[in-house]
């Protein structure tokens, strides 16, 4: 199975830091955010990785290279002149990802989730990893009940930024700049999205405050 790590965003919530360093290259402990996720994939037997890049893309490409130093293969999907958002970015990378289900990881998360616990049912187009609502997203993203995501206000949980997707989810979707959550809402309505809950380590590292919280793991 292939995986794509989403690393094209500008990381504006980090302020001055990301004017010179792209968010995926910010350090957490002795490794960058994106290195943690590359190694997570490798440790779970996934060695064929696509990384979408746009903002300060050359810094990311030059730092990671072809993946040889991590024991993986890295291909890049380069979005110019601006990022295509999470949904558009994945759709743009489909020629590299191929026609089989693939994993998606946000580059700005840190987790110990066991990726082998995630699978895609035959009739589903996506399966997501859900976590308890953190303080910055206290109302959650989706309703999670009996392994399914639903459009209701019961048992709301937060999308972790980890999922497995069938490329067919993009069928008949005109390419544009759009967020992945928009595509998910459409398919949840069609009962095409399953999920699993993760109650282990998970951090969304979207700004300096959240980075400081995650750094306590490494102190």
Task: Write down the Rg.
Answer: 16 Å
**Can you tell me the CATH superfamily?**
Spore Coat Polysaccharide Biosynthesis Protein SpsA, Chain A
Percent of residues in beta strands? 25-35%
In terms of per-residue confidence, which ranges show pLDDT below 50 for 5 or more consecutive residues? none
> In CATH terms, what is the fold-level topology?
Spore Coat Polysaccharide Biosynthesis Protein SpsA, Chain A
Give the SSE order as H and E letters.
Answer: EEEHEHEHHEEEEEEHEEH
Task: Enumerate how many helices there are, as a single number.
Answer: 6
End-to-end Cα distance: 34 Å
- How many structural units, i.e. domains? 1
Model description:
With 219 residues, the chain is α/β, with parallel strands linked by helices. The chain has one domain: Spore Coat Polysaccharide Biosynthesis Protein SpsA, Chain A (Alpha-Beta Complex), CATH 3.90.550. It contains 6 helices and 13 strands. The strands form 3 sheets. Strands 1, 4, 5, 6, 8, 9, 10, 11 and 12 form a 9-stranded mixed β-sheet that branches. A two-stranded antiparallel ribbon has the order 2-3. Helix 3 (85-92) packs across helix 5 (180-189). It starts with a strand and ends with a helix. The model has no long low-confidence stretch (mean pLDDT 97).
Quick recap of the structure?
The chain is built from 6 helices and 13 strands. With 219 residues, the protein is α/β, with parallel strands linked by helices.
């Amino acid at each position: 199975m292939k995986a794509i790590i989403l690393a094209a965003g500008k990381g504006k919530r980090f302020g001055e830091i990301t004017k010179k360093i792209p968010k995926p290259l910010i350090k957490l402990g002795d490794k960058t955010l994106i290195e943690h996720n590359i190694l997570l994939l490798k440790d779970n037997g996934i060695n064929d990785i696509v990384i979408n890049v746009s903002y300060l893309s050359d810094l990311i490409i030059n730092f990671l290279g072809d993946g040889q130093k991590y024991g993986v293969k890295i291909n890049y999907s380069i979005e110019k002149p601006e990022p295509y958002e999470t949904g558009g970015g994945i759709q743009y990378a489909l020629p590299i990802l191929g026609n089989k289900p693939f994993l998606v990881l946000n580059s700005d998360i840190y987790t110990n989730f066991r990726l082998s616990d995630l699978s895609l049912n035959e009739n589903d187009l996506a399966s997501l990893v859900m976590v308890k609502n953190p303080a910055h997203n206290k109302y959650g993203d989706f309703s999670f009940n009996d392994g399914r995501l639903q459009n209701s206000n019961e048992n709301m949980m937060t999308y972790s930024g980890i999922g497995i997707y069938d490329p067919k989810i993009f069928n008949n979707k005109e390419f544009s700049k759009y967020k992945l959550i928009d595509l998910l809402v459409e398919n949840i309505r069609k009962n095409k999205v399953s999920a699993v809950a993760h109650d282990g380590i998970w951090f969304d590292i979207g700004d300096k405050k959240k980075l400081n919280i995650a750094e306590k793991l490494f102190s």
